[in-house]
Design a protein that fits this description.
33 strands, about 45% strand
């Protein structure tokens, strides 16, 4: 009996030490969790609290929640107050994490003033009209689970177009937000947050003969670009090309200062000796059954510490249409240094019938995370069958350390019009619980997280979960969207 009790005690201590409860609170009237954000530079998890706003009609301009306060937590659960007693919406952190932007005012809407806070202190505001005809979409969004994406609208976050000093956007030569990259001149619009001074600068852009011509596969739509803020001083403008042979692609990354002066051009050249590039839903570009643009050939993650660049996508073994009717066979990651010199390439078949049966670009949802000092590649599918492929890749060598597939179901009965966490994927062994696709990857990687989930009763309110991967471990957000919420950190 003593041995049995000792075994139970040892198992319990290992289970408890593998996880930390960061915060656990009950819902309060008009003081409930409304959003969250993990900050990778600060290594802190932020909970925004407020209240649900009255709902009349859901449109692209609808704001669901008012944010009144925000608190950040470190990995031990120590809490710091960021702000309290505000009336804000769509609170979005800058890349530096030192500032944030929000809609503010007594009547919250997407037409309200844009308020800027530096070090959590109000700095200045711009009216909605001041940004009229300014296009910030090209900067994409940093999602709440810390992923960049460029294709899609977010009604809870601003575009990633601002830092601690400036907010940026683009226009054409007529001062309009619709830009035809092939025919129009591209102008950078610069808003100085502190002084409210505005500048407009014509940019020197990538030459079209590097992107379009007989040597290249061309988009069904016009040539386009994306942009990424790097820090308080620089941003990148990104264009891409694919060779007509479909086995070479180049990512052109031009770096500018905030005054629009080009500082550097870097060309990231990828070549498949025994394969062909195909498009996917990789968070950038667009591809469906009828049209596409070349941006969707790949995406990249840039290491914030040393500026190393990891370009990732999928490939096939047979040359075919790049956006439909192909047979995908695997994924690739190419690593470059900040000057565009290739360090390694990792080209990996995915020997999985589920993966190989897919034949349309929009079926593949690719992501690349940094997790415990390694890279985590995922492909999540919501098609006739729902599943995720994943691979753990060594950052130094490109070697695949682990690869697997996890299955789940999309149960639309979990869908909520608006909620703190709103996911719809479940699995038979975790009844009355709803997850995001990558949460099932997290369960497969961390047995302590799966064991914890099994302890949550299946009766009562449905429980919703979201997962954030980080170098600290796996952050798990848990809530029934009615009575309580909880954040945990699982380490290996």
């Amino acid at each position: 009996m003593k041995r049995l009790l000792l075994s139970i005690s040892l198992f319990s201590s290992v289970f408890l030490s593998a996880q930390t409860v960061i915060v656990e609170e009950k819902y309060e009237k008009k003081n409930e969790p409304v959003s969250y954000r993990y900050l990778p530079n600060s290594k802190r998890f932020v909970i925004f609290k407020g209240e649900t706003l009255p709902l009349f009609a859901v449109t692209s301009e609808t704001i669901f929640f008012m944010t009144k306060s925000a608190y950040s937590f470190d990995e031990s659960g120590t809490r710091s107050s960021l702000f309290e007693n505000e009336k804000l919406a769509n609170c979005t952190f800058s890349l530096t994490e030192n500032s944030f932007k929000a809609f503010g005012g007594d009547k919250l809407s997407v037409k309200a003033d844009r308020k800027y806070y530096l070090n959590n202190v109000y700095t200045n505001s711009f009216t909605n009209d001041e940004f009229k005809n300014i296009n910030s979409d090209y900067f994409g969004v940093i999602n709440t689970d810390n992923r960049f994406f460029f294709n899609g609208y977010s009604n809870i976050l601003f575009f990633n177009s601002f830092n601690d000093s400036y907010d940026l956007g683009f226009t054409n030569q007529k001062g309009k937000d619709k830009i035809n990259f092939e025919k129009d001149e591209v102008f950078l619009e610069v808003f100085d947050i502190k002084s409210k001074h505005k500048d407009r600068i014509k940019l020197e852009t990538t030459k079209l003969d590097l992107l379009k011509g007989k040597s290249f596969i061309e988009s069904t739509e016009e040539v386009t670009f994306t942009s990424k803020l790097r820090n308080n001083d620089n941003f990148d403008l990104v264009t891409k090309s694919i060779s007509i042979e479909q086995n070479e692609t180049t990512v052109y990354k031009s770096t500018y200062d905030i005054k629009g002066k080009k500082i550097k051009d870097v060309a990231l050249k990828l070549n498949l000796k025994d394969g062909f590039f195909i498009l996917s839903s990789c968070g950038v570009g667009y591809a469906d059954l009828f049209k596409y643009n070349i941006q969707a050939v790949n995406n990249y993650y840039e290491d914030p510490v040393n500026d190393d660049i990891y370009v990732y996508g999928i490939y096939s073994k047979k040359k075919s249409k790049i956006f439909k009717g192909f047979k995908a066979v695997g994924f690739y990651i190419f690593k470059f240094d900040k000057d565009g010199n290739k360090i390694w390439e990792s080209i990996n078949p995915i020997k999985d019938s589920y993966f190989e049966d897919l034949s349309y670009s929009m079926s593949f949802r690719l992501d690349l995370f940094e997790y415990n000092g390694k890279l985590l590649f995922t492909n999540s599918v919501n098609d006739a069958t729902e599943f995720s492929n994943y691979a753990i890749v060594d950052k130094s060598t490109g070697n695949v350390l682990k690869m697997n597939r996890v299955n789940y179901n999309n149960t639309t009965g979990f869908t909520r019009t608006r909620a703190f966490i709103n996911n719809t994927y479940d699995r038979g062994d975790l009844k009355n619980k709803a997850f995001s696709p990558v949460s099932f990857v997290a369960m497969d990687l961390n047995s302590s997280m799966y064991s914890y989930l099994k302890t949550i009763p299946s009766k009562g309110n449905a429980v919703y979960f979201e997962t954030v991967f980080s170098n600290q471990g796996i952050w798990l957000v848990e809530t029934d969207n009615k009575e309580y919420y909880k954040v945990l950190l699982f380490k290996e």
